[in-house]
Amino acid sequence: MIDLYYAPTPNGHKVTLFLEEAELDYRLIKVDISKGDQFRPEFLAIAPNNKIPAIVDHAPADGGSPVSLFESGAILLYLAEKTGTLLSHSPRERQTTLQWLFWQVGGLGPMLGQNHHFNHFAPQAVPYAIERYQVETQRLYTVLNKRLGTSPWLGGDEYSIADIACWPWVNAHQRQRIELENYPAVKNWHARILTRPATERAMLQAQMNPEVAKG
Questions:
Q1: Per-residue pLDDT reduced to its tens digit, 13-31
Q2: Axis crossing angle, helix 161-171 with helix 72-83, rounded to the nearest 10
Q3: Does domain 2-86+199-214 have CATH number 3.40.30.10?
Q4: In whole angstroms, how far apart are CA 164 and each of 66, 82, 134, 199?
Q5: Would the pTM count as exceeding 0.85?
Q6: Peptide bond between residue 53 and the one before it cis (omega within 30 degrees of 0)
């Protein structure tokens, strides 16, 4: 059983997408970031950066004591290596997949997150910041569109943790003032992932009681 400390954000969705694809047993534990749950000592013991998601794996592959992890990219890599799924065993495709995974955690997520903040949450409008992050968002979508115009999935021929990492951010494209029609390869990719049964189950978790065990 894996405990997933979760809020229904793009980074939170990444982990439920993986867990549903791999059909792992897990329990969602809600972290209400609007109430400051992320600063509670018991959560900080698992996630010292006070951000979701975080996991505790009660059945690690080495059979030892529970393993806790924070940072969504690290969690995806850990789970892929533990299960042997959603990360190619081909050295070349594996490296390509990791390249796009790190692109997401180092660029797509942070920049789109700033887009969300300055468009929806900043206490006052900051035109320079709004424009800066909108332009960068468009640039990143262009990079993504170019890749997906030449490959069915970000890592290559197989759906992978790179796609899982990027998809929840693209799924929030309307909040970023992005029209997917302008990025046809991204639109096609987004639609294909949206209709996966595991994606449907994962997104449903945002509307369900997060204390109920799943698996």
A1: 999 999 999 999 999 999 9
A2: 140
A3: yes
A4: 25, 16, 23, 9
A5: yes
A6: yes
